[in-house]
Amino acid sequence: xxxxxxxxxxxxxxxxxxxxxxxxxxxxxxxxxxxxxxxxxxxxxxxxxxxxxxxxxxxxxxxxxxxxxxxxxxxxxxxxxxxxxxxxxxxxxxxxxxxxxxxxxxxxxxxxxxxxxxxxxxxxxxxxxxxxxxxxxxxxxxxxxxxxxxxxxxxxxxxxxxxxxxxxxxx
Length: 171
Known about the structure:
Blueprint: H1 5-10, H2 15-25, H3 34-40, H4 45-49, H5 54-67, E1 71-72, H6 93-96, E2 111-116, H7 121-130, E3 139-145, E4 148-156, E5 166-170
Parallel strand pairs: 3-5
Antiparallel strand pairs: 1-2, 2-4, 3-4
Helix pairs in contact: 2-5
């Protein structure tokens, strides 16, 4: 089923529908670290989802439903190596290793790193740019790390009003 941009935007006001639809495609462990999940799993999936920026949740739902392709974020639930591609918390090694302030969208629950089944990261970024008018919210995409194109998609919903709807940046 194809939904309109307005329909996705309206999910800001119907979080139960948003969370239930997301849970059709994602296990909550794909979005949070194993440390957070272990500590708070007794509170249930809505506990975690309610702490993630709804614009991010709506955007990943839009991508998943519009493309029909499987999105891979964290994989530790299935024995995979990814455990910090969603929300990063104070126990995340990437956060703990910092010697200065770390203002990544991941620590503000506004970013994910992902792969989309059957597409390269470059193809996903191109697809997102091509479909920018359909996107429910503005996004930023990391393109290069130290001058080399990254092989995954970093997407965040950090909203700087000076930036275009889809903004590519390098780190």
